[in-house]
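Lay summary

Proteins are chains of building blocks that fold into shapes. Our project writes down both the chain and a compact code for its shape. Here are two examples, one after the other.
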Amino acid sequence: MDEPNQLRVRLVTPERTLFDHAAVAVELPAKNGYMEVLYGHAPLVAELGAGDVTLHGTPEGDQRYNVSWGFVEVLGDRVTILASDALKPEEIDVPRAEEQLARGHKEWDQAGDREEAYTESLRVIAEAEAKIASAAEAH
């Protein structure tokens, strides 16, 4: 790392590594809400939700990626984000995300008394809404 008090951040999906550089801070969507990580943060492992990871103070400036589910490991000088899916906002297929949102609402309407069906439909809806919002901010 070039600067003191910087984090080494890796953003990895099963298909590719999207980011592996230094950053001053990382904002990310934990399952229970957004969190920010700075150098020296207490170690933790958390489940990711759907939303944007924002990397501040990278060599290329601030960067943003939309992630969907996974885990993050935070150590004092390192953040590793393992996401099921991650895209740059400009890579998001908005019509496909809108179809996903409609499918999630349909699943919600058809869930009946099945709690797991409601939970899964909420995951689909949250992921689609996060993608649509991320793509809208990119334009």
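And here is the second example, written the same way.
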Amino acid sequence: MIPMKRDPCKTSPFAQSLRQAQILVLKIPKVFLRLKSSPSLTLNKIERSAKVSKPRASYLVCAFIVLGLAGASHSYVLPAKQILDFMIEQFGSTRTFVVLQKTVIYDPALEGGMREVDEILYYRYPDRFRCEVSTPGGKQVRVVGPEGAIFVTNGKIIAETENPFDHFKDLLLYRQAELLLKRLSELDVNLDVVSLGRYKYSIAYVIGAKYPDESVPQVWIEKNTFRPIRYVLRGGGPNNADLEEIEYTDYMPLDKGRWYPARILFFQNGRLARMYVLKTFRVNPELPDQLFDIPYLKTVYQPIASAEPPPSPESELDEVKKTIRDFKRTFE
């Protein structure tokens, strides 16, 4: 297991600036107290103190300006939609994207405590996703799109719901702010709450929670780069009770202006449960519509509980398999 260390620091730079300004203001009354308690002031001393009071007054005004600026900077953060707009903008205008990755599954029940498999991820922006993985138990295909979701194992449809581990793609797939806002709302992220927080060495916008509250679903967007770095799912949605959070790290450039996380970490029940490691990728390949067409795939694959023959001829399933094989050859 890879040990993960979290930064316990909870004091933001804004709070530090505010505290310094408060200390500055507290020094001012002491100066006037000394002037007031001076014995038998003469006219000359009064004149001198009057002259001194001018810079002291300026000092006081400056202190209150600093205090006001610190308080203003501490209280204002960008709204959720604007943050997500900036995040989507920095991802670029890619049409399609394919990733070949190594997936490391950590489970004490497995031999050696872990297993490695290769997965292929297909993104068709702004809202379609497909994942293929070959395991010792067979082949899995998972597809998510506007029509819903489908989970196929060994040619049989075993579910029409989304796998909780596929939520990592939410912040990387949806290239329209309205789509992403809708998705986050479905997972109980409160889009009306935005704060600033610190995670490890990064200052980030926290959408969905008041930092340092981590008990509710939230999205962390790095403040300088507007790249997602953390996705807390704890308590969000009906199927995410065990999957606590996802971390995006080690961003690498795909081409000019486009980046993708080279590692994606999944934490479940307080431990590292899964890790995705980027191996290779292709930007803007041609992808057949059939790969993402959920209504069509439901006619090709047979539900696991059904004894009926598939409504579509076997040749259609063969055609889908051939399309996938031909595309995979481009990675070889």
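What can we say about the second shape? The CA atoms of residues 106 and 112 lie 9 Å apart.
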